[in-house]
């Protein structure tokens, strides 16, 4: 993909899954550049919003939605080897990307979205699932959170993750999706720090943590991009 869409403020990436309008409005307040993926354009138009770009294989956007969007804003990116979420992250660049409509009733779509995070470790992407936020832990992360806040860690591959500020410390543990996982941990103190050894640990928090997550990610280093994404 030679074309790029770059934002200096932040991108709200809108998929075709269900989402609450208030979550979309909140995302746009933090990441004001709206990019829709396929039928996500219909969601945007239904809210009176015009995407700056619509991309994907464009097989599920409605005829009315396609007609309402200027042709130069429609980027057809056909491929059966990657999801539309993958295609979007191959095209867009921003300090932070808030992704909505990539989870929901279809569990296969949700799992595919988590896999996409792993394949794009260089991007600061936060998936808003309506109840929880999910993102790939960067090499070092500092989060200021209220004591008692739920914070789950889920390994997508074998990985160790040093931590401080959690009720159940993780330093020294060997996480593995077939063994040790870290669901339903909680904040013991006001600040949590995480240092995974590799780009393989997902962090899940309640949606009320969005501002703290964005602040932490903005200050965190990022993983190197895979060779295909450079």
Task: Describe what you observe in this structure.
By secondary structure, this protein is an alpha/beta fold. It has two domains: 5-130, Thiamin pyrophosphokinase, catalytic domain (Rossmann fold), CATH 3.40.50.10240; 141-196, no CATH class. 23% of the residues lie in helices and 28% in strands. It has helices spanning 21-30, 40-46, 63-68, 84-91, 107-119, 210-219, and strands spanning 5-6, 11-14, 33-37, 53-56, 74-76, 92-93, 97-100, 125-128, 132-136, 141-144, 150-155, 161-164, 182-186, 191-196, 201-206. The protein has a ten-stranded mixed β-sheet with strand order 5-4-3-2-7-8-9-15-11-13, sandwiched between helices. Strands 10-14-12 form a three-stranded antiparallel β-sheet. The longest helix is centred in the middle third of the chain and has 13 residues, at 107-119. The model has no long low-confidence stretch (mean pLDDT 93).
Task: Name the CATH architecture of the largest domain.
Answer: 3-Layer(aba) Sandwich
Order of helices and strands: EEHEHEHEHEEHEEEEEEEEH
Radius of gyration: 17 Å
Find the structural class using helix and strand composition: alpha/beta
Strand order of the largest sheet: 5-4-3-2-7-8-9-15-11-13
Distance between the termini: 11 Å
The first-level CATH class of the largest domain is given as Alpha Beta
Number of domains: 2
Helix content: 10-25%
Mean pLDDT across all residues, rounded? 93
Q: What is the CATH fold-level name of the largest domain? A: Rossmann fold
Number of DSSP strand runs = 15
Poorly predicted regions: none
Provide the CATH superfamily of the largest domain.
Thiamin pyrophosphokinase, catalytic domain
Globally, the shape reads globular
